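R.M. (postdoc): so does anyone remember the format we settled on? I'll just put the structure tokens first.
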């Protein structure tokens, strides 16, 4: 089985790794076509980093696993949802989501500054100017480098 690697961004005040630790969740509300297309390629067993944005310490805080492949995002059909899209219908849902589950919490946050200054991560989509996608790919090499960073200073990952 070929495992792909991903990065999932969330603001911790909206949804944090601690929230995910309680139970698997659907990764709903994504309203970018490129991010949606990435989710449509995900397979059960794919691994991901969980990234906290818009907080005091921005960075990768742990790992997740895709536990359900893409399916229609119900929030697009709900007029009361912040993610409602009047163009979406049951027949043509437009937006997709996957389910992810908690796998591990890093002993420390791998900060954005640390990622930016680590050799081998220069091409990571997260670090590219203007990259704002909430779902993005990570190469196998980048995955290994970040996992190695998580083990520094006594980490166990």
């Amino acid at each position: 089985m070929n495992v792909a690697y991903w990065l999932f961004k969330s603001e911790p005040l909206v949804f944090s790794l601690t929230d995910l630790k309680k139970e698997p969740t659907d990764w709903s509300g994504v309203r970018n076509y490129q991010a949606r297309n990435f989710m449509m390629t995900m397979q059960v067993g794919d691994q991901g980093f969980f990234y906290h944005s818009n907080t005091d310490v921005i960075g990768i805080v742990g790992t997740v696993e895709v536990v359900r492949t893409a399916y229609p995002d119900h929030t697009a059909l709900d007029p009361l949802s912040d993610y409602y899209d009047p163009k979406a219908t049951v027949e043509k849902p437009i937006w997709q989501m996957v389910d992810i589950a908690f796998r591990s919490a890093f002993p420390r946050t791998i900060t954005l500054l640390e990622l930016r200054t680590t050799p081998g991560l220069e091409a990571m989509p997260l670090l590219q100017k203007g990259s704002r996608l909430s779902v993005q790919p990570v190469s196998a090499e980048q995955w290994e480098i970040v996992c190695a960073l998580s083990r520094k200073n006594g980490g166990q990952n």
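R.M.: ...and that's the designed sequence above, right after the tokens. Also worth knowing: DSSP finds four helices and six strands in the chain. The chain has one domain: 5-154.
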